[in-house]
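Handoff note, outgoing to incoming analyst
You'll be picking up this chain. Sequence as last confirmed:
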Amino acid sequence: PAHRLQALARPGMVITDQPLHMGQAAREADAYVSYGSHGFVADMLLAGKPGLLLPTVLERSLVTRRVLQLGAALTPNPQDKNFNVSAALRQILDEPRLRQNAQAFAARYARQDRSQIMAHIADEALKP
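Most recent structure output, in case you need it:
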């Protein structure tokens, strides 16, 4: 409900119950927090944004592991019972290395036409 959304609002944070255009949201955001869904994380990386990943299932843990290898995100260590979300958010915004690594990923794939990915896969699979 709208009254619950308003209660969660904070300066610099947008909470909405409406669909978002993810490409636009990714371009406008400074960083992101996600449970590690592939599509969302890909949109954010392609926009050069660092993130805080909180995976909830194995598949999302695999996405998270790869983004950590890129050096473009943070995630809590499962053994760390004192993980501080506020400190992690500040680190994502303040640590240049995370943003630089996310921007390097975006630059690497800037020329790729995502609308042609499935057509290319189908062409490769159907080659004689």
